[in-house]
C-alpha cells in the first residue's frame, strides 16, 4: 500500500473517531402514573430508542406489579392472600413468594 493511501485511511479513521466523540447522546424521558403516584424514567443512549414501545413496556411491568402487590386492589394477589381464611396451602406466584420470603427474612 502506498503512503498516500495509508494516510487517507488513517485520516478517515481519525475523523470517524472525532465524529463519534462529538456525537451527543439521545435523552429519553418517560413519565407516567401508577399506584397513586407518578414515576419518571430518564435514559441517555447513543442508540435510538423507541419511546412508545418503552413506555408500553414500563406501564405493563408496573401494572403486573400492581396486580400482584397492591393492598388497595381487592383482586390483587397479595390482597387475596391476606384475606385467605383457611389454614392450608395457598399458591402464589414466584414474584409474590420472593417478596414474602424477603419480608420474612428482614423481619
Blueprint of the fold:
Blueprint: H1 3-22, E1 26-34, E2 37-45, H2 51-69, H3 77-82, H4 94-106
Antiparallel strand pairs: 1-2
Q: Overview of this structure, please?
A:
With 107 residues, this protein is an alpha+beta fold. Helix content is 54%, strand content 17%. Strands 1-2 form a two-stranded antiparallel sheet. The mean pLDDT is 84.
List keywords for this structure.
107 residues, 17% strand
In short:
The protein has 107 residues and is an alpha+beta fold. It is built from four helices and two strands.
Shape: elongated
Report strand %. Answer: 15-25%
Number of helices: 4
The percent of residues in helical segments reads 40-55%
Overall average pLDDT: 84
Sheet having the most strands: 2 strands, antiparallel
Could you spell the SSE succession in H and E letters? Answer: HEEHHH
Evaluate the radius of gyration: 26 Å
Lateral strand order in the biggest sheet: 1-2
End-to-end gap:
72 Å
Low-confidence stretches: none
Number of strands: 2
Secondary-structure-derived class = alpha+beta
Amino acid at each position: 500500500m502506498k503512503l498516500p493511501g495509508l494516510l487517507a485511511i488513517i485520516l478517515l479513521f481519525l475523523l470517524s473517531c472525532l465524529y463519534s466523540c462529538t456525537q451527543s447522546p439521545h435523552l429519553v424521558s418517560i413519565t407516567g402514573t401508577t399506584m397513586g403516584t407518578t414515576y419518571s424514567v430518564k435514559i441517555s443512549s447513543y442508540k435510538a430508542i423507541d419511546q412508545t414501545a418503552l413506555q408500553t413496556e414500563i406501564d405493563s411491568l408496573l401494572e403486573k406489579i400492581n396486580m400482584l402487590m397492591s393492598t388497595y386492589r381487592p383482586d390483587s394477589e397479595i390482597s387475596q392472600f391476606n384475606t385467605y381464611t383457611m389454614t392450608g396451602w395457598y399458591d402464589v406466584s414466584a414474584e409474590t413468594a420472593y417478596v414474602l420470603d424477603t419480608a420474612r427474612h428482614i423481619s
